[in-house]
Amino acid sequence: MLPSVKSRGWSSIKRPGGWLFPVALLTLALVAQPALAQTFTVLYQFSGAPDGAAPNASLVVDGAGNLYGTTASGGDLSCNSFGPPEGCGTVFKLDKNGTESVIHIFTDNPDGKNPYSGLLPSGKGTAYGMTEYGGTLYRGTVFKLDQAGKVSIIHDFLAGSDGEDPYLTDLISDAKGNLYGTTSEGGTNPILCSCGVVFKLSPSGQETILHRFTQGPTDGTFPEAGLVRDPAGNLYGTTFFGGNVCRYSNADGGCGTIFRISPTGKETILYNFTGGAEGANPAGRLLLDSAGNLYGTTAYSGIGCDTY
Questions:
Q1: Cα(210)–Cα(216) distance, rounded to whole angstroms?
Q2: Residue 136 DSSP one-character state
Q3: Which residues are registered as beta bridge partners of 156?
Q4: What is the spatial distance between Cα 196 and Cα 300, in angstroms, rounded to a whole number?
Q5: Lowest CB count within 10 Å: 45, 216, 239, 297, which one?
């Protein structure tokens, strides 16, 4: 049974895909005792095939304590469109005894390749997720996973005015079962600015583009992270680049933004990062508290760590 409760975690900076060396699942027991006495336990070490490699996303847990997640590569190592064999990724389950089960092995087309995103449980024994690549046009997919491990494609990204390459963004949902997310590329003009989109998917898979990013200085570009949603239906997120030109600007322009999208699709830039002590290039999902305050991190800059 897939879980009905979703955990959250911070995103990380985009890495080259396809590690074949083992990556471990870890746990740290945080109890009321001195820091040196904490217990660190390796729950599982991935081997690449068939269990997977490069688990980038956060985990989800069910009521029985089983963990579920994705690996961005590994699985069937013959599945690779470019370069050396690396595999297209997996969905896995890890039980309380540390036994791993591979629920699904991705095959590139039609189901997708490289699920850098985590899973969104539906509460009905199924879950939703995304792959960065693969699918009909190799632009990424949104998929539904049933209890038997069968994947059904909810949406195939087509680039152009549609989105493409959903990266570290986890899906979120509303009470009606609509899904919301971002793609790191695609949008209004893929020649001038393949800057990414914010999208909504109905339960039947009908896509609505809520916003297409157009780059700075009045907009952001490359939304890496997922969204958060307030009770009024407003969506909040970050873009890695875009916004005002700052000391770290490159061809993408700007050090990143924090944005809000209204239920009708109206975008408001809440903040433009400028680098230096305040940071630059937010890569992780925001946290929204009950008072409406937003919390987050930047991948670069800051006091004493000014490397880019």
A1: 18
A2: T
A3: 141
A4: 21
A5: 45
Mention every residue, 6+ apart, whose C-beta is less than 8 A from residue 190.
159, 160
pLDDT at position 7 over 80: no
3-state secondary structure of 36: helix
For residue 285, the number of C-alpha atoms closer than 13 Å in the C-beta half-sphere is 24
199 and 211 in contact (C-beta within 8 Å)?
Answer: no
- Alpha carbon distances (Å) from 217 to 10, 59, 150, 237: 26, 36, 44, 17
Mean pLDDT of 154-166: 90
Segment 3-14 mean pLDDT:
34
The token duo for 258 is: 């924090």
Any idea where the domains of the chain sit in the sequence?
Answer: 173-308
pLDDT of residue 11: 31
Question: Is residue 68 a contact partner of residue 60, using CB atoms and an 8 Å limit?
Answer: yes
188: Cβ contacts below 8 Å, ≥ 6 apart: 161, 195, 212, 213, 214
Show the tokens assigned to 46. Answer: 């991935």
Phi, psi values for residue 283, rounded to 5°: -115, -10
